[in-house]
Amino acid sequence: MSSYSKKQRPREAAGRTTGPALVLVGTVLLTLLVLGTQKGTGQEKASGNAQAGKSAREWTVESHDRTNFPLVWKHRTLSCRECHLNLIFEGTPSDCEVCHWQRRQDDPYGLRLGTRCADCHTPQAWKNIDPAKWSHETAAGFRLEGIHRTLDCEPCHGNSGFEPRPTDCFSCHEADYRGTRDPNHADANFPTDCTVCHNQRSWEDVSEDASFTHTSFVRQGMHASAACVDCHQNGVYAGTPSDCASCHIDDYDRTADPNHRTLGFPLECSQCHGTSATSFSGAVFNHTSFVRQGMHASAACMDCHQNGVFAGTPSDCASCHINDYNSTTNPNHRTLAFPLDCSQCHGTSATSFSGAVFNHTSFVRQGMHASAACVDCHQNGVFAGTPSDCASCHINDYNSTTNPNHRTLAFPLDCSQCHGTSAISFSGAVFNHAFPIQSGRHSGFACADCHRSSNLQTFSCIDCHAHDQAAMNTKHNRVGGYAYNSQACYGCHPIGRR
Known about the structure:
A two-stranded antiparallel sheet has the order 1-2. By secondary structure, it is an all-alpha fold. The protein is built from 19 helices and 2 strands. The protein has helices spanning 2-8, 19-37, 61-64, 96-103, 136-140, 154-157, 169-179, 228-231, 244-254, 270-273, 301-304, 317-327, 343-346, 374-377, 390-400, 416-419, 447-450, 469-475, 486-492; strands spanning 121-122, 125-129. The termini are far apart. Among the domains are: 2-12 and 21-140, no CATH class; 168-243, no CATH class; 299-344, no CATH class; 431-498, no CATH class.
């Protein structure tokens, strides 16, 4: 403004004040008055008389970027007069504390935090602290989280200064602790470390309700949703017992189906009800000495524990099922001396007595045998000592077969050699010939076409070919070791080809 004043000052030294000069002076004063009362916009222009030496020239934020103090973030939105008091541009200080304390006086801490604002703050906003420059956790030993991040300094540090403060909860929240009545923290001897139950978001937020970690009693099932007073009655917390009966003895005594007290049920509810159950219904006892599977899984307690007797109930099959065993006639278990261990035939997961399957350890049931009834092999009710060789059961089938005649041709008595073990009928038997008869020129022949005697070890090649000996001799006259007999033919033609 000084250069501006020198250039435009009215010439009064000579004492000549003319009409045009007065008009000029009035115009300048009116212009300055208007500029001084206008609110800045961040793009404020000072033109003509408002900028010394820059008459009729616009001054913008971008123009300021070419000075030794470029405008960034908040500074970029300010009007000129907020830093250049009375629109005096020359000599405006660039130090933070000079503007924000000596001139603007907008530091609420009165420079008690220091004079080097840029050491912590950024021009973006006062509360935008550069974490790379200053950290409350590093400087004060307390990390700001949750609601603590939104607080100003005074609620914790007061207005007396920033001397080191204790970081434990109780030092700040003792009044909250002692003033809480539901539940009464002090009377219940709650810990003074608030974080044991509360998070740092809010005291009252229902969705973030306080939750105490029961180290001596894990809250599961029905206990997970129980209120504190459900277990800690009359505001007594310390010394609350954790055994089931202390809370549930009335439930135990009045339960009649089954009657817990009469039957001598254990007082440890979790043995039948578990720890995660949401009601007393559906209790399941863990039968450590008898695993409940199949029909037993759905049986009621009274089905096995008759007359209310639980202790000493035997776990062997016959103790419960001897009547079923004795009354079964198809097959007759008692007459046939079936084992008393039902699981050997009925298994442990069966849902009925029907469909029992005996595990033939000495004879694997496959093919036709898989669907055979017990009496098909165990005739006359004889099970013990039943032979497992083929002929013992199938000798009549063997003797009555004529195409081919098994007996005449001396077929082996082990049916599986031709019929296999998984066949579902006697048809389609296949013998594994070393000589190919399943395909080619030798397929489709009956056994007797080549095996002319009952001795299947012998065979004939020359009898079934329309070749006389003379022709064969001529054809093989250059073949060493040639002989006109079947063994020689097979020796040179083991697969029936040249």
